[in-house]
Design brief:
single chain; mainly alpha; Farnesyl Diphosphate Synthase; 73% helix; 0% strand; globular; terpene synthase activity; magnesium ion binding; Isoprenoid_synthase_dom_sf
Length: 251
């Protein structure tokens, strides 16, 4: 869905696509002019229908509804960013982070990762995620800023919504990009501290749920530590995968 908003869709197409996501009904597919959007939309509905069927067998159908709502929220955030790009707008940092942490995809992954878990996950677990708890908010900040730092050059070349670097530069009048990156890296470090604090302190939320958020963040830390290892898989990424999965250190 990220690439649909970032690369392929026109503004008018994205407006219709976002509305279709909000309505979440197969009849909306006919209103999508682009074939690839229809294919994607149909695939998403099918996947969620299959999830609902599996959850119903376990009397947990309510779980899929939470995943749908998070998907809808993310689509709104993606469209908000697309509107900025369409209007040539560079928002302030506060407004940027409000949308960009929602569009980063981590909340979707964190929610979906709970769908197949056992009885340790209850309705209140999903309600808790929807409150944007501190540990999830810290994770989203880490992922968004790390992504922006390593991908800013590539995104500018292809034409993309303003990044945290652009927003900071405009808001505070700082022209030295490395100085901005240093500031953002400090925010990343502070967010790691927040996340670790939330993970270690006593809480009613079961640890396996918190572990999901922490581990998703660790994956992104590996991907974006040196470069954009997600878009441009190189030696660092290959060595990292080999170290973890092919030649792991003995226990």
């Amino acid at each position: 869905m990220d690439d649909i908003y970032d690369t392929f869709g026109t503004f008018e197409e994205l407006e219709l696509f976002t509305e279709a996501i909000q309505r979440w009904h197969v009849n909306c597919m006919d209103g999508l002019s682009a074939d690839y959007m229809q294919i994607f939309y149909h695939a998403v509905l099918n996947v969620f229908n299959e999830i609902e069927e599996e959850m119903m067998k376990e009397e947990r159908a309510y779980r899929a509804n939470y995943a749908k709502e998070v998907w809808k929220t993310s689509a709104k955030a993606y469209f908000g960013e697309a509107k900025w790009f369409h209007d040539g707008c560079i928002p302030n940092m506060e407004e940027y982070m409000r949308f960009a942490t929602a569009s980063v995809g981590n909340t979707i992954l964190s929610t979906i990762s709970l769908l197949g878990m056992g009885d340790i996950v209850i309705k209140e677990s999903f309600e808790w995620l929807l409150t944007d708890p501190k540990i999830l908010r810290a994770s989203n900040i880490i992922i968004r800023l790390m992504d922006d730092i390593v991908s800013t050059k590539f995104e500018k070349e292809r034409g993309h919504v303003a990044s945290a670097i652009d927003c900071y530069m405009k808001q505070y009048g700082v022209s030295d990009e490395q100085q901005i990156i240093d500031v953002l890296n400090k925010q990343i470090v502070d967010s790691w501290k927040d996340m670790n604090e939330e993970f270690l302190r006593p809480t009613s939320m079961p640890k396996p749920i918190l572990v999901r958020i922490v581990n998703l963040t660790r994956v992104v830390d590996l991907l974006y530590k040196k470069d954009d290892g997600y878009k441009h898989v190189g030696k660092v990424m290959k060595d990292g995968v080999a170290c973890y999965f092919i030649d792991p250190a003995p226990p």
